[in-house]
């Protein structure tokens, strides 16, 4: 059984959910505060049944053959299209470094990984060579009329290739892409429902940067907005809040699973408070807090019992290019061990 | 002389120019209708002098040593940040296919190319292997404990590598990245002023997808917008129009150069009209019109004399994966020949 390939869902024609108000104050934006109402009013992406099938096969394979735990790692930012024929969209910044790096450490620690990622964001293993300022071709050289890997990079690249091939051959990694927030929400729901059979052996590691705001599908212009059509040359975009799906995830879709959300802030003064209030609101197991400025050096595990455990790289580790995920993931797994324990007793 | 490398300007800390209105109708958005006022009120990116130096050296090298014409190719979409510590931004969709592909054909036809591109968008040559659903590592294989290029891909990749190395060794290609619309505008201005010495031998091929709207720097929140801080859970973003810089380019910055702009629409009924009115307004030499849906199969050259010349791929060419840029660029060069001729007589 070979692992399914990542699908190519073009940004140019997303399952879009947006509207633009150019009439300024009269327009009453649709308010969708309820998760069910969201799914009633927004169409699923057309490819969803195909993904459901692939994910089910993946989960069944591991239930029957490997007994591995399964981590769903979400990664990268979602988009909110501003037009149906999308030229413009609002994006949440995220290269996907946290998710792609974490996925590798989950794999190394014996988990199978469902990697739900923004298309073209960083992927496990290939992340070491993509998105660099070095061009792909700078790793190549010509010798005796043949192309080869530049010997400077060959040893390191072989190590990465072996890990990548291990993950492929053991069918431990499945790549599922999204672009829009609508695609993300529908796919998360579907994958979560599939993972229900895993009970406490499923781990949700929700590192994607999901838009807080969106524009309901009901008022989406078909064509590119013309600047001449706007009042005083201005464009006013009115966004509604994305419903909070985490409680639905905890209570219905993935009951029994261990759920970890992330809180990314830029203001140090509100980080712990916001992480704590997320736990109070959704009753899940762990919030990993981080600041945009220091996220590669330190994170904080905020737990329902009130503990705030910081994980930090020391100076030597920073100099040695140690990845903080190499310390985070074993700590996450320890919490997962306890979760499984407490659910079995 | 080795060509300068593309710089890594992080999206996380752009020279941002934005404001968000959460108070809804009272706020009077700053109107910046004039190009000079824009530059007075917005700071240049800190790295601009470095780019200026690199571009000047590149131009001087070709003026002294190769007498090549120089094409400035702009490519990819600009962003408009919504916060200073940017997590969210508005983006214009463009993978940069048109620009990256066109740059290769300019190089093959003897031009030197300044490639002003959105960071991480497609680049000439590496475009054949990046952004594909195939992972970088899928092109590699292990044999006798060594990593090598999979023989399936080796011949084709060698051809691309040779062209890439030719461009590097002849110092014919310089890569200049941007992320925000402010970085784009400042860099375009600077590069244009440097190209002034080339007179009619300079060609501007403005394929980048530049935002029509932005938010003036004067009202930019420092930290991530909190959804709890918005009225009724809504977020209203009020954008001003980006000043139209093309007339400044034609009249001042790059006087004498041949200037080509692009018009991308989704509505076939307004394409020619909009292309023609751009020519009327800016008095430049050529607008290349294209529709989002068919842009890889057909484009139209709209000229000041009223001619609309379509360039289309026929069925055989489409089946044979012919790139439309292989026909477009020779046609562009013919127009450039005439422009140089008319300027010398």
From TrEMBL, chains A, B:
Positions in coiled-coil regions: none
A Gene Ontology BP annotation from the UniProt entry: coenzyme A biosynthetic process
Ranges for domain DNA/pantothenate metabolism flavoprotein C-terminal: 193-296
GO MF entries: phosphopantothenate--cysteine ligase activity
Pfam families for the chain: DFP
UniProt superkingdom: Eukaryota
Amino acid composition bias (Polar residues), ranges on this chain: 1-11
Region (Disordered): 1-22
PANTHER family (alphabetical): CORNICHON-RELATED
Family to which this protein belongs: Belongs to the PPC synthetase family.
Protein name in UniProt: DNA/pantothenate metabolism flavoprotein C-terminal domain-containing protein
Organism: Candida maltosa (strain Xu316) (Yeast)
